[in-house]
Specification:
Distance between the termini: 50 Å
GO biological process, one term: mitochondrial electron transport, NADH to ubiquinone
Subcellular location: Mitochondrion inner membrane
Order of helices and strands: HHHHHH
Keywords: Acetylation, Electron transport, Membrane, Mitochondrion, Mitochondrion inner membrane, Respiratory chain, Transport
GO cellular component, one term: mitochondrial inner membrane
Protein name: NADH dehydrogenase [ubiquinone] 1 beta subcomplex subunit 9
């Protein structure tokens, strides 16, 4: 189970929903027959409905903690990872070309997107102006290094 840094306070309902989703994903890893999976998913849902419908908050919290502990102990040894998720086979595979590649497009290619390239040239000018205002204009000595 990965360590998560909370960015906001999680309500009890949020914790139950997250635990339920992790439980279903874990079931998918263990049970490969669709009919068996549906039976197990219905039983899992009933377990979480019992937690949600419990009127005593202390008991409901202890039930959720016991469920999370059980989930942790029975997590599949090789959980499924989505291809483009962290750890998946296709994670970070697509090449993201740098912006300067567009400078080498042929003029006929650029002509297909006139508004984009006009705005891009304007923004490049604005960036150069900002740079010169912030750091000063380059000197001849800067060009030789």
């Amino acid at each position: 189970m990965a360590i998560r840094i909370p960015f906001r306070y999680l309500t009890f309902t949020d914790k139950v929903k997250r635990c339920y989703k992790r439980s279903l994903r874990n079931l998918e890893d263990w049970v490969h027959d669709r009919a068996d999976f549906r039976i197990q998913a219905v039983l899992c849902r009933a377990k979480f409905d019992e937690i949600v419908n419990c009127k005593d908050p202390v008991k409901a919290n202890s039930m959720l903690e016991a469920t999370e502990k059980d989930l942790f102990q029975n997590t599949h040894w090789q959980p499924r990872k989505w291809p483009k998720s962290v750890g998946g086979v296709a994670y970070d595979r697509e090449v993201k070309p740098p912006d300067w590649v567009l400078d080498y497009w042929h003029p006929l290619e650029k002509a297909q997107y006139p508004e984009y390239f006009a705005r891009r040239e304007q923004r490049k000018k604005e960036y150069v102006e900002w740079w010169e205002k912030t750091y000063g204009k380059p000197t001849k000595e800067d060009h030789h290094h």
